[in-house]
């Protein structure tokens, strides 16, 4: 089958810096219905943590600390780049997901280390299941404060924001291929989110 005749699917994304200098980042992809437990909250988190370790060649290693805290540690050290409280499952009409509240880490502003949330959600739609990866209310150390300089914004955009976007898009694309066996061409498109400055 030629490249031009391959089926196509898409991943939507948007990253913005809100007025209080917190980051909102979201990526999503539609999966076919009928995948069942493969898209359960626990399974999605497991897939994501495995992807983080594999994608970073074990440079970042997810670690569960006593009490259920989840840390993204650097190599084999105790240094946590970002730490989350114990995962919590959440459910609403037509959706189920897992939520992790940020509780520390060297990449988080110390004054805002208990602010922010990471979530993975599976939401049933009329055309399948939309898997959403969302980071909200996050205050990165690189931005420094609620009034970051232009240089800090640029540095964050070129490093942490870029890496997060690539890691998440690759996660969704890999998960889609693994669960469906499809060789579809993946197209990345920008979507709409709350008002803010693009990053």
Annotate the secondary structure layout:
Elements: E1 8-17, E2 23-31, H1 41-55, E3 60-64, E4 70-74, E5 80-84, E6 88-92, E7 95-104, E8 117-125, E9 128-138, H2 150-180, E10 185-190, E11 197-198
Parallel strand pairs: 1-10
Antiparallel strand pairs: 1-2, 1-11, 2-9, 3-4, 4-5, 5-7, 6-7, 7-8, 8-9
Taken in chain order, the helices and strands follow as EEHEEEEEEEHEE
Fraction of residues in β-strands: 35-45%
- Mean of residue pLDDT values: 92
Q: Residue share in helices?
A: 10-25%
What value does the Rg take, in angstroms?
17 Å
- Any low-confidence stretches, pLDDT <50, length ≥5? none
Secondary-structure class? alpha+beta
Largest sheet: 11 strands, mixed
What's the tally of helices?
Answer: 2
Distance between the termini: 37 Å
Describe this structure in words.
The chain has 2 helices and 11 strands, in the order ββαβββββββαββ. It has helices at residues 41-55, 150-180, and strands at residues 8-17, 23-31, 60-64, 70-74, 80-84, 88-92, 95-104, 117-125, 128-138, 185-190, 197-198. Strand 6 (88-92) and strand 7 form a beta hairpin. With 199 residues, it is α+β, with helices and mostly antiparallel strands. It is globular, with a radius of gyration of 17 Å. Strands 1, 2, 3, 4, 5, 6, 7, 8, 9, 10 and 11 form an 11-stranded mixed sheet that branches. The chain is 23% helix and 39% strand.
């Amino acid at each position: 089958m030629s490249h031009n005749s391959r089926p196509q699917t898409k991943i939507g994304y948007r990253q913005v810096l809100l007025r209080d200098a917190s980051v909102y980042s979201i990526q999503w992809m539609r999966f076919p219905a009928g995948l069942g437990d493969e898209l359960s909250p626990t399974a999605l988190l497991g897939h994501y943590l495995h992807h983080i370790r594999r994608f970073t060649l074990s440079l970042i290693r997810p670690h569960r600390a006593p009490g259920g805290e989840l840390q993204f540690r650097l190599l084999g050290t105790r240094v946590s780049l970002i730490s989350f409280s114990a995962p919590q499952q959440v459910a609403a009409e037509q959706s189920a997901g897992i939520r992790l509240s940020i509780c520390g880490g060297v990449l988080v502003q110390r004054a805002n280390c208990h602010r922010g949330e990471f979530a993975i959600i599976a939401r049933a739609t009329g055309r399948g299941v939309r898997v959403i990866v969302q980071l909200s209310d996050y205050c990165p150390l690189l931005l420094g404060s609620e009034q970051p300089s232009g240089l800090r914004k640029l540095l964050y955009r070129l490093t942490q924001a870029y890496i997060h976007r690539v890691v998440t898009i690759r996660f969704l694309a890999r998960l889609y291929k693994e669960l469906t066996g499809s060789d579809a061409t993946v197209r990345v498109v920008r979507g709409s989110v709350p008002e803010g400055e693009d990053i």
